[in-house]
Amino acid sequence: xxxxxxxxxxxxxxxxxxxxxxxxxxxxxxxxxxxxxxxxxxxxxxxxxxxxxxxxxxxxxxxxxxxxxxxxxxxxxxxxxxxxxxxxxxxxxxxxxxxxxxxxx
Length: 105
Known about the structure:
It comes from Cherax quadricarinatus (Australian red claw crayfish). By secondary structure, this protein is mainly α. It is built from 1 helix and no strands.
């Protein structure tokens, strides 16, 4: 009887140990899964941030380009206006000269 009891106890102990080992393994697996998930989330976040930054940079560049274009256009317009004014002045001068000549004649 004692032997039987001892055997039973041993078996129980073994079972308990096995269960503990199983539980530990399960816990480890869970932890690993959680870590993986966290890593994935972090990666996703990083990617999103990078994308946002890129978009912002692109927008800024576009804005700068537009501003530059506007500036160039304005400069061109100013130049044209100046040329027109110069032409008008020249024409006036010519007219005046012609008038003077006519007076002389």
